[in-house]
Amino acid sequence: MLPVVALVGRPNVGKSTLFNRLTRTRDALVADYPGLTRDRQYGQANVEGLPFIVIDTGGIEGNEQGIDAKMAEQSLLAIEEADAVLFMVDARTGSTSADIAISEHLRKQSKKVFLVANKIDGVDADSAVAEFYDIGLGEVHPIAAAHNRGVTQLINLALAPHIEELSAQVEETEIIDLAEGEEYDDSAETQQDDKIKLAIIGKPNVGKSTLTNRILGEERVVVYDMPGTTRDSVYIPMERGDREYTLIDTAGVRRRKNMTDAVEKFSVIKTLQAIQDSNVVMLLIDARDGITDQDLSLLGFVLESGRSLVLVINKWDGLDTDIKDRVKSELDRRLGFIDFARIHFISALHGTGVGNLFESVEEAFDSATKRTSTAMLTKILEMAAFDHQPPLVRGNRIKLKYAHAGGYNPPLIVIHGNLVDSLPLSYKRYLINYFRKSLKIMGTPIKVEFRGTA
Ligand code: GDP
Ligand code: GDP
User: By the 8 A CB rule, do 291 and 333 touch?
Assistant: First the structure.
């Protein structure tokens, strides 16, 4: 489970500036996929190799009424779901009555709260900080989010209780240099069991529980109860054919049965955790709503995580042909950029198409974990370069020499050559597609890294 850090504070103290800084990698991702919208509220963050989830709660003043009260309620819910709260104040304006009001709220929560004085650049930090001790939330942590001052220290402090656990689960991201002909040592990874962890995600009312029940109704299922908070999904072991699965049920079907209010609260954090914990994600989209911003933002989380993906357009029953055509053309137009995921059109309610989903899930899992030798990858690289030569850089031809595996799930291909820093993005895309077609990899993104050789 990734820890969750919530940013709280009145408007203009610098929450979104800090949010952007913490989730910076996501900007690179958004540039890679022009069809993606950025979620301004929830982000996957990474500071010095420590992954966590960050929530920008938006502004709360502490005295909201009417519709603002509703929004403040959302912020308070986010605070409930968080492991640590960063309560931000503005060192330039000094403490305000709104700050005091928010601090009253926070004091009532049993959360670890860090009082953060932002914008300490260009002010006398000591006296600015001193003023906020009156708020009575203990130590004041000075930062300048816009200039990345004090941010790493702050995060290390906020995540301190989780650091040991996190370092244990941090993935090996270091790119390994191998000489030509050498094989990537994946002994650590092959020890992983081949149980497929499948997360079923989607916005509220898209049909997650209906689909989960449908799947469970058809398969041999061993169900066990797991106590949990709103943040937790239900994990359901299941067998299908000769394969073992764990369904990660974000809709909480099992618990819902016993719940007095039938509606499980939709939680983005729960969804993020489920993605993180899965090998393959089924993202459900409601055919009747078309592709919404919420769908795109969930899709962004999946793409960023590198997990395998099957896209499921649900509620395909009883639709007129012109509506079906419209949905399909919208898919082409808005989701054409994800060319690796299979798309299924199903009716969870009637069961139509549900059985076929598993072919794509297994294909995606197998693609993501498939082993390919250095010799094979190098051969494919040579063919790709032969079919379409890398471009000239200031009169010199970029040379691609050899390729080897650098990791799996998602597959990482490390390519060695010279002048590779100058390789245009379009050629990089061409190579990824070439590898995808040659290796018949479907359902998972492929990552490519370049290594310069003299
Ligand atoms: P939010 O409403 O809390 O999300 O605040 P924003 O992140 O939108 O920031 C409000 C204003 O403060 C913007 O003009 C930012 O550029 C500015 N700001 C944020 N962080 C800093 C900082 O560290 N130093 C200075 N000088 N300005 C900052
Ligand atoms: P969840 O919030 O994502 O778990 O969504 P539910 O499974 O609770 O479904 C929300 C509503 O959509 C319910 O009224 C379902 O009966 C309905 N629904 C789910 N799947 C389908 C489907 O394939 N076709 C139609 N027509 N309705 C569906």
Answer: no
At residue 386, what is the residue type? F
CA atoms of 52 and 44, how far apart (whole Å)? 6
Strand 220-221 to 234-240 pairing: antiparallel
- Decide: 148 in ligand 1 pocket, CB within 6 A: no
Ligand 1, residue 7: give the atom nearest the CA: 3
Ligand 2 mean position, distance from CA 141 (Å): 47
Q: Tell me if residue 210 falls in helix, strand or coil.
A: helix
- Using the 8-state DSSP alphabet, how is residue 421 labeled? G
CA–CA separation, 217 and 211 (whole Å): 10
What is the ipTM score, two decimals? 0.86
Is the beta carbon of 17 within 6 A of some atom in ligand 1?
yes
Measured at the alpha carbon of residue 249, what is the angle toward residues 241 and 242, in degrees to the nearest 5?
10
Q: Tell me, in angstroms, the distance from the centre of ligand 1 to residue 2's CA.
A: 27
Distance of alpha carbon 45 from alpha carbon 86, whole angstroms:
14
Q: What is the pLDDT along the chain (454 residues), one digit of tens a residue?
A: 889 999 999 889 999 999 999 987 655 565 566 666 667 788 888 888 888 999 988 766 656 555 556 556 667 777 888 999 999 999 999 999 889 888 888 888 888 999 999 999 989 888 888 989 988 899 999 999 999 999 999 999 999 988 877 776 665 556 677 888 888 877 666 545 689 999 999 998 899 989 998 988 865 555 454 545 566 788 888 888 889 999 998 887 654 444 444 445 677 888 999 999 999 999 999 999 999 988 998 998 898 888 999 999 999 999 999 999 999 999 998 888 888 999 999 999 999 999 999 999 999 999 999 889 999 999 999 999 999 999 888 888 899 999 999 988 889 999 999 988 888 888 998 999 999 999 999 999 998 999 987 6
Among the listed residues 7, 406, 6, the one whose alpha carbon sits nearest the alpha carbon of residue 186: 406
Write phi, then psi, for 298 (nearest 5 degrees): -65, -40
**Residue 3: which residues within 8 A CB-CB, separation 6 or more?**
52, 53, 83, 84, 159, 162, 166
